[in-house]
Amino acid sequence: MTETTTGQATAEKHTALYDEHAALGASFTDFGGWQMPLKYGSELAEHRAVREAAGLFDLSHMGEVWATGPQAAAFLDYALVGKLSAVAVGKAKYSLICTEDGGIIDDLIVYRVAEEDFLVVPNAGNALTVAGELEARRTAFGAEGVTLRDASAETSLVAVQGPNAEAILLSVAGSEDHEDIRQLKYYAGIEVDIAGVPVFLARTGYTGEDGFELFVGNELAVQLWKALEEAGNAHGLVPCGLAARDSLRLEAGMPLYGNELSREGSPFAAGLGGVVALKTKEGDFVGRAALEAKKAEGEGTTTGRRLVGLKGLGRRAARSHYPILVDGVPVGEVTSGQPSPTLGYPIALAYVDVAHSAVGTKVDADLRGKAEPFEVIQLPFYKRQK
Questions:
Q1: What is the pLDDT, as a whole number, of residue 10?
Q2: Which of 107, 199, 339, 378 lies 20 to 30 angstroms, CA to CA, from 347?
Q3: pLDDT digits (tens, 9 = 90+) for 263-281
Q4: Could you tell me if 203 and 186 are in contact, meaning their C-beta atoms sit under 8 angstroms apart?
């Protein structure tokens, strides 16, 4: 059992693949109320497998909400900050759902599966919140012309990430789908059969590597997982947990909700101003007035704080909530940090005052009373060779 913020006990949630993880000896952790594999053995080995070969992830704790109907595109333009009506069928777009005052409720990916069918994928801990918020916004927008269906409870999500990901999928896909898989672009998706299992296959991920995410019904999740695991044996694939996923996404400079993104923050401070379609999208959307005001005020560019990448100049890593100092004066705070397995030095994401956010700026992290030197560097920390 887990406990809510009100002190009420709630049942732990298990994905359809829980027994598979247990059989593999996974160490579990609570994430958004779900019991998820943290690691199976060495999190460092899992991290390196994704960088050098391939990793297999269970992401079934993520949410899946379908928005369908002739007004679905217009509704998502109203509900989210991006221009989803401009997304072509078979493509995807990274977006945000914001509050009226411009705070971030969640970051998410939206797939346009068909002309009137959109798949919205929120983060695990926010899935119920986002589904409820979308329903409230549907009412405000006008219920006719758009239908919402929360398919999270019936959908599993499996990811294959790493330089060998494509080869693994091709080894279990039908020959008639090989060329479509090879030609699938980043942030695009298609419906195919993988090992005889019908899936929606997207070339997306959260690791900085090439890879795919596979949406499948719960009843076929185990069959798919086992087929990918077996096919991956010849390609160096290993099952990976949330620990490796976190270190991989940090190296790739990708934000995590609850760390870099929150209702108290804003897209501009987080470096996500380009996601907000203030110029290209006509008409109102939730949070537009507040976001226009924040941009006009120069939030994240000339005022306030902005998210930056920090490279450790010493050996000690800065962790979440550690203060950032200049001449002993606090100017920011770390949101995520740890030693980089790939790069060999400590890295961190932090919000710092814009006056100290330029690349090359030297700062210190307060590591429990000891100042450790860091330098602001260009994100991402790691970028794969294509």
A1: 59
A2: 107
A3: 999 999 999 999 999 999 9
A4: yes
Cβ atoms within 10 Å of 70's Cβ, excluding its own: 11
The pTM of this model reads 0.95
Q: Is residue 145 part of a domain?
A: yes
Q: Decide: 10 and 2 in contact? Cβ < 8 Å.
A: yes
**Structure confidence at residue 197 as a pLDDT band (50, 70, 90):** very high
Task: Indicate the burial class of 79 (C-beta count within 10 angstroms; 0-12, 13-18, 19 or more).
Answer: buried
Amino acid identity, position 72 = A
User: Looking at the 3D structure of the chain, how many domains does it have?
Assistant: 3
Check whether residue 164 and residue 244 sit in a common domain. Answer: yes
87-119 burial code (b ≥16 CB/10 A, e <16): beebbbbebbbbeeebbbbbbbbbbbbeebebb
Is residue 22 situated within a structural domain? Answer: yes
pLDDT of residue 386 exceeding 90, the answer is no
> Residue 245: which residues within 8 A CB-CB, separation 6 or more?
57, 206, 207
Same domain, 146 and 160: no
What tens digit of pLDDT does each residue of 43-77 get? 999 999 999 999 999 999 999 999 999 999 999 99
Q: Look at the block and give the residue holding tokens 């941009």.
A: 295
User: CATH no. for residue 352?
Assistant: 2.40.30.110
Measured CA to CA, the distance from residue 284 to residue 278 in angstroms comes to 10
pLDDT at 203: 98
Closest-CA residue to 169 (of 184, 156, 154, 155): 184
* Domain-located, residue 194: yes
